[in-house]
Amino acid sequence: MRSVRGYIIRRLLLAPLTLLGVTLLVFCLTRLVPGGPVDRILQERAISALSGEKSTGIATDSVSEREREKLEDLFNLNEPLWKAYLQWLGIRRSRVETYRAEFNGNGIATITAAAADGSPRLLEVRLRADGSPLFITPPWFRKEAWNLRIETGAERAERLRKTRGRSAPAPPGGNPPSPRAILYREAYNGLLQGNLGRSYKYNEPVMGMILQRLPVSLYFGILGALVAYMLSIPLGIFKALHHGSVLDGATSLLIFIGYAVPGFALGAILLIYLGARLEYFPLYGLTGTDFETLSAWEKVTDIAEHTALPLTCYVVGALAMTTMMMKNSMLENLSADYMRTAVAKGLSYRRAVWRHAVRNSLIPIASGLGGVICSVVGGSILIERVFDIRGFGMLSYQALMDKDYSLIMGTLLVSSIVIVIGNLLSDILVACLDPRITFR
Known about the structure:
The chain has helices spanning about 1-30, 35-50, 60-75, 80-90, 155-165, 205-240, 245-260, 265-275, 295-335, 335-345, 350-365, 370-380, 380-385, 390-400, 405-435; strands at about 95-100, 110-115, 120-125, 135, 145-150, 180-185.
């Protein structure tokens, strides 16, 4: 027991390092891959503009530059890779609010900032003869919470060249860009503070989107795992004890069919025949459109009706695989020497089966718990799509299709945490079922 406790402690200590390595790898890949979030967003807006949207009446280069800077601030693209990753983790301060304004011919930059009540207010920055700024602050403005810097024309041109390359807007007349006043506020605002960023596609907090979708996948995943194990373990024991019988052959045929048919294909068939044609079950979603107006019992019935078909598709594959795994393990243990020894010492065959064979046969099932828990959160993307279920798996798929990097990082982090927890639970269950296993 002491060795098991020590092993669990070591695994718990290694879990944060594992998660850190996974997130670092994916963060680097998303930052280095061509066609990042800024380019994708601007391409979508350019396509929308070409499709007939109203013109804003502002120069294209000016709009493009302001939008780029806003998006670059959002994704910390102006920072080095290591610094941006630390800011995403929340162990380094990042910019949470930024304002920019160019100096006019008189050396004055007017910044439109938000006051404490959210109303827009004007701030004025004057450029002295030596190039240092003179910040004129009204009484309502808390200067100590903000930082002010002057970005010279040369610095601005160099930044544009590094971040955008050939796509950097050319200054009018070939002159260097004008200097600007940059007012910004920094704070710890990352993962450790419960912030995973905002989705650029949906403009919502990533953490809120995950918490909204995760219960749906947990509901189907946990319920599907419970049903699969409750059916497959007794069925596997029965098939092993009656190996070669007619019932064993018939159930094996059904199991092989269930294993061969993909869950999404079965879902489409059930949806067409039991949903559309016979109208026994609803066609989509987890609840009906009038769910809020139903009574408590009617709500339970409505959820059960919407759950039946998707749950069947979730269970079929896991049920077939776990049943055959349980049967094969039982057959191996029934023919082991310790079974004959137990019976020879006076233990009845029935007690020997339930005390020794069944317990040892559960070890392979327990070792596969990690994979089952991973599917609990990820779910089946295709099944969720067939039944139009807004679960975590579908959210991950949408994030990849939209190249929504903040959402990709958030879903990946949750999936990694679940995988680590699942593997840890598998090892603990195996240790409880088989005391011969030692952890060093």
